[in-house]
Amino acid sequence: MKIEIWSDVMCPFCYIGKKHFETALENIPYKDKIEVEWKSFQLNPDLSKTEVTSVKEYLIESKGVSEEQVVGMNNQIAEMGKTVGIDFNQENSKVVNTSDAHRLIHFAQSKGKGNEIEEALFKAYFTDGKNVADYNTLSEIGEEIGLNKTEILEMLNSDAYVFDVASDILDARNIGVSGVPFFVVDRKYAMSGAQPVEYFVSALTQAYEKDHLQDNADNNGASCDVDGNC
């Protein structure tokens, strides 16, 4: 069973949703039969790659919220993060364009390290306050999970995966994704948002048992069961 997850590095609920999803997988007997593919989505593709903005400045200017509201929102997210082991420090987060971070995600997935790079980038952005548009920073993040730093820099300094990122975003638009995280199972079922662990367990189990257990049964060939039914 294939699960595609549209996500953005600067989306706190994507990080929380990732934790809930991973916990759910540990409670599903078919977890080894599930393939995960991370897909690119940008909450604000118009952001600069070179001008760094704080979360407070960004929300006040782009969303029109007050400074007091920003503090309240950050505190609420921080409390939610604690329940899943995330140390949110959004007051230190650097709001920048995430397109190159998404290219790194595609590169990492090509090396079998999609989940690892997602976790590393979320931590870099939300906990460590790193600039995820800076090439040296991205190469160091990639190196930390076992990728080759030189290869990362060569990739970033080319147009590699630019089309893949754009294709993911277009794909999201075509299937009606308006917010992230967004989970699509076998291109048949969809789940939106950082759902509770129990919801993921139930939904994923039902999807697998409905489609894949029946497929396995159909592929077993002609047979008779222990009751003599043939």
Automatic annotation (TrEMBL):
Pfam families: DSBA. InterPro entries: DSBA-like_thioredoxin_dom, Thioredoxin-like_sf. Residues 3-204 form the DSBA-like thioredoxin domain. SUPFAM superfamilies: Thioredoxin-like. Keywords: Isomerase. GO terms for molecular function: isomerase activity; oxidoreductase activity. This is DSBA oxidoreductase. It comes from Chishuiella changwenlii.
